[in-house]
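pinned: reference chain
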Amino acid sequence: MYLDYYGIDKEPFHITPDPEFLFLSTSHKEALGAMIYGVQQRKGFLAVTGEVGLGKTTVLRAFIENLDEAHVKTVIVFNANVSYKGLLKTIYRDLGLELSNDDVFEMVNGLHEALIEEYKADRNVVLIIDEAQNMPVETLENLRMLSNLETSKDKLLQILLIGQPELEAILDRPELRQLKQRLAVRARLEPLTADDSLKYIEQRLRKAGGESGEIFTKGALQTIVHEAKGVPRRINIICDNALVTGFGYNEKPVTKKIVLEVIGDLEGRGGDLRRRFKWAALLVVIAGFLATLLWMGSGALGDFMKTAGKAPDPNSGASISPMKRSSQQEPPLPQSLQSVQESGGLVRKFPVSAKGADSGSSTTVDPGSDTVEESPLQGDFNIDGSALSPESFPPAHQREEPSFPGGLELEESSSAEGLIAGEGPQVTRGLTTSVEEDKSESAEEKASSQPASQEFQRLPRDPGDAIELLLQRRMEEQP
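pinned: its structure tokens
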């Protein structure tokens, strides 16, 4: 899938053992040479061991491909976990021999005769057992009997054991000491060195039609070599996955970052690494943001802490700003009062008994003026502007004092006639004044017998001065 992208002709890192890509390190050369020498010289027993993934099978296949089929016959056993009788049947089948008897002794004799005929025809017979560490000990011991099939000069059957290091431990067992003594040639594969690992990658890319420097960066190659630890199979897996991932990311050449990601995925920790990187990056961003906020707010915060709790200096000229009115909208006034409110005045409407119980008057109080004006009512109205019948008017001494919009109240201490004559209370915006009304006397007696209270003397227009004056009068009246 990535061949055209990287400009190569075939996949260079197959996991299957392909003799075309055989890389001969020092130990691989020794193993291949031991196979060739042992078979050609008819040495009988041979053994090649090595760790998993080092290329034992690749070396073996390269050896088989280079055999002269005209003079060498091979019997390959891939499933080593067989009995001795089963092994004999496999040899009979691969050599094309007719099995006339199922007896082990007769089968061995028939095999001996067949091998002599092959020897006379100048043909060699090789029995190859792959993954020999899985073969039962009893079967291994009986292999010694097959090695006794020989002439006075040469071995008729060459037995090649290919296995992992566990095979060496099995051969060291006391019951197999005779077999171990018959091993004429032994070789062991070792992991690739760092230089051999780089050469291994370069050779495979070159055979596939590419160059390592154009496909992998130097850092990527070093990371692959370090992580593979000289195991060719692991090199193939990492490189192949790195090429696929690089193709997916549209990255050419493949970088070290991609290789590390592939290694993490192969080891089952790729998701954890990515989550760690994301959380680490997020923490760095949060820390930087908080540091910026602290740096920007340190000056203002310090000034606030220095001045917090200190009373304002009266000589500094600082003043306390008045509280702002709420932005909440007040309920609308009746239409009969809206025009008065727009002119800045307040209207109070009530019937006046001195002038006649059937008529009423309106008193307009202008906060910006020292006068209280009266105007006749056009009909009878409540304070909200609704019609009011004369029968519903209570006597003057039973009336409840009406309240006005905006929290302004006007309590009456003099007669209606005195209010009309200008002798009643003066009203200041935002200030409510009240006196206890003597409900036992009529409005006319109060107007003639009592002068207006000092508390309702004319007050200054300024609200602050009015409050201060009222407080001073309160203090003077207290005993």
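why pinned: Residues 81 and 134 are 6 Å apart (CA to CA). The longest helix spans residues 270-307.
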